[in-house]
Amino acid sequence: MPTRMLQRLQIQNYAIIDALNIDFSQRLNVITGETGAGKSILMGALSLILGDRADTAVLLQRDKKSVVEGVFALGGKKEVAAFFTANDLDVEDEVVIRREIAPSGKSRAFVNDTSVNLEQLRGLSSLLVDLHRQFDTLELGESDFQREVLDALAGQGTVLEEYRGLYRNWQAAARELATLREQQAQFNKELDYNKFLFDELNEASLRENELEELDQELKLLNNSEGIKTALSKIYYDLQEGEQPLVQQLRSLLHSLQTYAGYHAELSALAERMSSVQIELQDIAGEVDRINEEVSYDPRRIEEINERLSTGYKLLKKHGVQTTGALLDIYGQLEHKLQDTLQVEAGIAAGEKEVARILKEVQQKAAVLSKSRQAQATPLEEKVNKLLKQVGMPNARLKVQVAPAELNAFGADAVEFLFDANKSERYEPIRKVASGGELSRLMLCIKSLVAESIDLPTLIFDEIDTGISGEAARQVGVILKGLAKKRQVICITHQPQIAGKADAHYFVYKAVKGEAIKTNIRLLNQDERITAIAQMLSGEKPTAAALENAREMVLG
């Protein structure tokens, strides 16, 4: 059972249509009517919800807006659900597309009452409706569809999905490798300079706080003579003078201790003087020790000056103030050099991975190519046989499968070539086929792949141009078969095609007030027979025409 995609079409205030409401069947819907009755107007209105440009010239009543609304059943179409998700639209089982044209000329489009732009509208409608009109640039001329036909006939959907997964992995690995190479190029630009800076700091081999400590040591050495003089004087006055302070304090303490027992506070004073005497004695010892350690060392001063000179140059070059900051820079440079090595290792590994996946991609692409090439000739034979049936006995289809660069669908360039007159000069379809030829060619091809490709609603406008009789009947047979798998809507002038309809709609003009309006109605069986008989022999059909029409409808 086909998916019922376009359930209902409502049109208001469009051209000579006041208001129409059409409920379509799931199978073959045929629309007939006299020339000028408004069949093309129906297609124009439908085109609005498919994303065509709007024009205020279509307004029947200039002070009212024109509204065209289509109601579609999704039927579980994954591509439509993915479109809704990608465009932040709520996914529902039923989709209502509405297009409004205001008297001011402003046009608006809505999907389930959410405003969308024309690009979004075209993207969605292309998934729901496949409209074939004369002079259109049809998808039959597009290489993606041509390749899809071969893949559908080959039944290699699983292989194609496996290939596309591998191809995506290859692309991702190649992008990652390219990123690593960009990093390497950037690193290489800075590598020599960073290596120079690193080696310079590495050669200096600074330790934590070294420059600060050397600066302090240098100050000590430069003032060593003054320090020793001061220390010597202090020691002399404390221990070795004519009246050393330590000795004097000891004598004073002795005098006080003699009378300490006679006054309560003298004992405490004595203890304090004893502590001071001991502290001065200790200070004298420390002074003597330090004096021994301090010495003027010209060689050491020279060493420190050289070391500090190196350090200060590095501080100035890197714009920092401390040894710690230089050591941080040293660590950063070391990290950058290590990153360079890691990138090189990553590139080596990445190249192997890209090559490995590419080999798998190429192998899978070869499988796809072999299957496509195997389907080329059978497709040509089947389509050319059908072309004869639909009134194109001299037309030929040639399927060309040529090598191409790897892409998301393999390594093939698929091109459908067409020769309309047995000239043996095959050209791409989009260049040589007329509108009617394209429509019938597309019908033939889609009838072959309808079970394999998830086709949307198929609408054929004027597919019967230039044919009649048996060819028209064959077109009807093919449409009928196609409609068993997909919803089909066909506008036709041929009774042989109308006779195959599951639902037959008749477009007519009627006088309403002082105006002529277009209307449409679904015909019952007797009305169908009459309408088809009129298509066969005129407004007043003959008994033979009525009998012939009955056979077409009931046979």
UniProtKB/TrEMBL annotation:
GO terms for cellular component: bacterial nucleoid. Residues 194-224 form a coiled coil. InterPro entries: DNA_recomb/repair_RecN, P-loop_NTPase, RecF/RecN/SMC_N. The keyword ATP-binding applies. One of its GO terms (molecular function) is ATP binding. Residues 5-512 form the RecF/RecN/SMC N-terminal domain. Keywords: ATP-binding, Coiled coil, DNA damage, DNA repair, Nucleotide-binding. SUPFAM superfamilies: P-loop containing nucleoside triphosphate hydrolases. One of its GO terms (biological process) is DNA repair. It comes from the Bacteria. Pfam families: SMC_N. Belongs to the RecN family. NCBIfam families: recN. May be involved in recombinational repair of damaged DNA. This is DNA repair protein RecN. The lineage of its organism: Bacteria, Pseudomonadati, Bacteroidota, Chitinophagia, Chitinophagales.
